[in-house]
Amino acid sequence: MEELRLLPEHERRELVETLVVEEFRSALFMTPQDEFPLDTGFLDMGLTSLRLSEVKLSLEKKLECEISTAALFGHPTAGQLIDHLCA
Fold first, then answer.
1. Per-residue pLDDT reduced to its tens digit, 9-57
2. Quick one: which of 72, 59, 71, 74 has its CA closest to 25?
3. pLDDT tens digits for 43-52?
4. What is the rounded CA–CA span in Å between residue 82 and residue 77?
5. What's the CA gap between 12 and 70, in Å, rounded?
């Protein structure tokens, strides 16, 4: 995460967005060609809380940081979560 923080803001956001979208696409069995909506709620897309927890754990490993469950449910879209992770 420290290396991530050293990147310019636009590059950091781009990288975080890529990782978040990849994880959610995988959890939803989407292909890279499928349009991924950044503004649709996780639960509205069909994710269960268990599957969302799995995505959280994977993102924590990739980003080398903790993502609280409260932050995850308090930012219920990929776009909001990306904003939170980049703040």
1. 888 899 999 999 999 999 999 999 999 999 999 999 999 999 999 999 9
2. 59
3. 999 999 999 9
4. 9
5. 23
User: Between helices 9-27 and 78-86, what is the axis angle to 10°?
Assistant: 140
User: In the numeric block, which tokens belong to residue 25?
Assistant: 């696409």
pTM above 0.85, yes or no: yes
Q: Is the dihedral of CA 25, 85, 37, 18 positive or negative?
A: negative
User: Could you tell me the CA-to-CA distances from 62 to 1, 17, 22, 43, 58 in Å, in that order?
Assistant: 9, 12, 11, 22, 6
* DSSP reduced 3-state for 34: coil
